[in-house]
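S.,

Sequence below, as promised.
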Amino acid sequence: MAVARALTALLSLAVLAAGCQGADAESLTRLPVPKPPAVQGAKPVLWVSLAAHLGSQPLVLEGASAPLELVDARGERFSARRVQLRWVAQALAEPIEIRRSVLGPFASFEAAEQAALTWRALGVPAEVAHPRDWEVWAPADAPAPQGTAPRQLQQRLTQQRVLQFNAASGWRSLKGPVQIQAPGGLRFNGGVFTGPFRLQVDAYGSWTLVEEVPLERYLQGVVPHEIGAGSPAAALAAQAVLARTWALRNRHRFAVDGYHLCSDTQCQVYSDPRQAGSAVRQAVSRTAGQVLAQNGEPIHAVYHASNGGVSADEDEAWPLPELGYLEPSLDLDGASVQGLTLPLDAQEVAGLLARRSGVVGATHPLFRWRRQLDQASLRKGLGPRAASLGSPLKPVVLERGSSGRVVRLAIDGPGGRVVLERDAIRRTYRQLPSTLFVLAPSGAGSWNVVGGGFGHGAGLSQAGAIELAARGWSVEQILNRYYPGARLVPIQALPEEGHRGAL
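The prediction came back faster than expected:
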């Protein structure tokens, strides 16, 4: 009970930090979690989640070649080669009231962050969270940004999840955060990680396994999974620069949960750095400490698998302001540009999609693709939203961006219309590799979708970088092609985290 009372007291102290206003606030916006440490200095360290939302199932951690050493918040120490952990429900001394305004879900962190910035412009302390999907949280009944309708969430928490360790004497409770040292490495998810590690509570009452990993080691676990270890040297080096820049730019992505980045596709895919081959290690070493920057800040270093022959503007993928270095551009050899001018209309997109020669990155397996949307797939994508539309449904392109990508897609029915925008299009219809496509009827209630590329299309095309590197382009030339105006600078040239502007 003492632990529960301490937790309740901590929650009460965190009311202001969590966003509740006034000294007499009766509830919390969320469970409070300490922020992760600043990512700064010449050799920054990231806190990366290896597994999140833990607490419903037991967890087994295994030392690769030596016992693991665990130390909980009370200083209690345990050591074992194979650690069995579980979570049990424990009653709180006093219930905790959670009340908040919620926007979302959003298709991406980028979209959620822009909504949070809009809310903050009204003086509301909004936060981005990821309980299942991306959401924005603010104090209950906070003034809503124009054109939004936040839902009000209210929870009464009566229990907490307590972590237990299977010691020789039986199950022992551990007070988080739990520090884990792995002298011989931690065997996890098919790999071996060096650590150190932490088990800590998140903003939802579940737990997270976090690795504290130096940035340069982190890149060794990212680069081969993002672009492929067999890519030419200049392409690997470009990917290393971008992964480093992206990590610094997005270090706040999971601040609400007490760590910096995840290890899956919601961030950059991160796996066992020990498996990085010599080419990857050389690429990371060759570019050590180098980032792409503009106006003293790391750029929004987004990248994707294939642009299909034309790079997207940033606001074709997400509701972002003009960034300058993410410009729509035809990714073609000189002579192939003839007959195409930006912005591309539907007819020009169809013409581009008919081309294979003269287009950079044409060897990618999804450089050109075909899909079909029928009544069943249209309804499945919309889920419950389809019920009020009636039948039949019809997809209608409402707007294209400068690169010709669909930025507003309507699904019409006799009973109404659902409009999907930007990243929500691919999230809703995951069978579509990109939004660079044209629609053509193919019988009653069915449409052929002819498209090109894989991913959002903004920034570096990995297929393009691979081809250009194979032609002899340098890493600098590749980066200049896809991020015009951005400069390669050492990390030391960036201001300290506490002095940086909002990203």
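The longest strand covers residues 82-106.

Coffee later?
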